[in-house]
Design brief:
ARMT1, Rossmann fold, alpha/beta, ARMT1-like_metal-bd, ARMT-1-like_metal-bd_sf, 7-stranded mixed sheet, 2 domains, Damage-control phosphatase ARMT1 family protein, binds 1-O-phosphono-beta-D-fructofuranose
Length: about 375
């Protein structure tokens, strides 16, 4: 294991993490308030959260106050900008849930503050028909098209869209190890898919799952989603169900997915770990066992990538193989690059890329460790 570089903080002027805390978080709160007519006390709490001079802990009565006290040791009382970026973002979403009363007894309990935005991002009939039509292609072509769709679907991240300029969109796959991914998927064993965003990302994920099951490339699929609203558009169990309802009555894919859930060849999981400020190095036993037993775990998205290699200032040429060696079982990352952390690039590969390549979402990676 190489020596760990320091974690990414948000206090570097002009940096991406600084812009997330300074610009993206207020924009997220604004959209929440536009989407849901929360009462004055909620609006005030959200306003206070944005103005908070130093990080305050969760109220003592919160169900997870003890865990957050442990995870946040040394963070409280400091500036949001001076603590690790990954932790600060995670805690922001947890505090946002607290401010809107997501866990509190009362009328707002369980109401997804990002629900209206997610609804607007649900796929329409054309997208559903396009993905359905892929079934007519030969298997090999379907496989390629589905990985591409699941990969680029990751740009449908609503937090990212709130502030992305898209000026120098190029859309380029800078590492493509998808061949290795398919090589690992021939045995008909279990596959874990750790989902990222609902809506236009989850749709191709579901169609990919259907393909894996239908063609016997997976005997069983575990779909892992978030247990609570997180990073705006991240998928929850309710979002999976909403998505399934979008498939027209006559859709063979929709019907098969439903039957797979009913019969158990597709199972839904929402472990609390996925909303914790931790990396996969700290996987709880119950998840580590599942990932170890799977033929492959597919991690979707930018945040899962940061959690896989560690949210640190890694040189881009650091070995993906080495940094993910600790992960229990084979792992594939399907990610559009939307933050600073990148590893596994060939020497000099970044020289020809535009200055914004790490955060524009125009570049993507398919990286695999078997
Ligand atoms: O995980 P996802 O949905 O692909 O991306 C999440 C994201 O938009 O949020 C973070 C910044 O807030 C970045 O890691 C990334 O750009």
């Amino acid at each position: 294991m190489p020596v760990e570089p320091p974690p990414i903080l948000s206090n570097v002027p002009g940096s991406f993490p600084q812009s997330v805390l300074r610009d993206r978080h207020p924009a997220i709160v604004r959209h929440v308030l536009e989407g849901i007519p929360y009462p004055p006390e909620v609006r005030l709490r959200l306003e206070r959260l944005l103005q908070e001079p130093v990080i305050a802990p969760l109220p003592a009565g919160a169900h997870d106050a003890a865990e957050w006290a442990r995870w946040g040791e040394g963070m409280y009382g400091r500036s949001w900008y001076d603590v690790p970026f990954l932790w600060a973002e995670n805690f922001f979403y947890r505090r946002l849930l607290d401010a809107v009363g997501y866990y509190a007894p009362g009328p707002w309990r369980g109401i997804d503050p990002f629900g209206p935005q997610k609804d607007a991002g649900l796929p329409g009939p054309e997208e559903l028909a396009e993905l359905d039509a892929l079934q007519a292609l030969p298997d090999e072509q379907q496989a390629g098209a589905l990985v591409t769709a699941a990969l680029w679907g990751n740009r449908a991240d609503l937090g990212f869209r709130l502030v992305a300029q898209g000026a120098d969109r190029v859309d380029e796959l800078i590492v493509d190890e998808s061949k290795r991914l398919w090589e690992l998927l021939r045995g008909g064993g279990a596959v874990c898919l750790v989902a990222d965003n609902a809506g236009r990302e989850l749709l191709p994920d579901l169609v990919l799952i259907d393909f894996l099951l239908r063609t016997g490339r997976a005997g069983r699929v575990e779909l892992h989603v978030k247990p609570a609203p997180y990073f705006v558009s991240d998928a929850l169990p309710a979002d999976v169900l909403a998505e399934l309802r979008r498939f027209p009555a006559g859709s063979a894919v929709g019907r098969r997915l439903r039957v797979a859930l009913e019969e158990g060849s597709l199972s839904l999981h929402a472990d609390p770990f996925f909303c914790a400020p931790l990396t996969f190095h700290d996987l709880p036993e119950q998840l580590a066992v599942r990932f170890a037993a799977a033929e492959l775990t597919i991690l979707k998205g930018d945040l899962n990538y940061r959690r896989l290699v560690g949210d640190r200032h890694w040189p881009a040429t650091s070995s993906f193989e080495e940094l993910t060696g600790y992960f229990p079982g084979a792992v594939a990352a399907l990610r559009t690059v939307k933050s600073d952390v990148v590893v596994g690039l060939a020497e000099g590969a970044e020289w020809s890329l535009p200055a914004s390549w790490r955060t524009s979402g125009a570049f993507a990676l398919v990286q695999v460790r078997g």
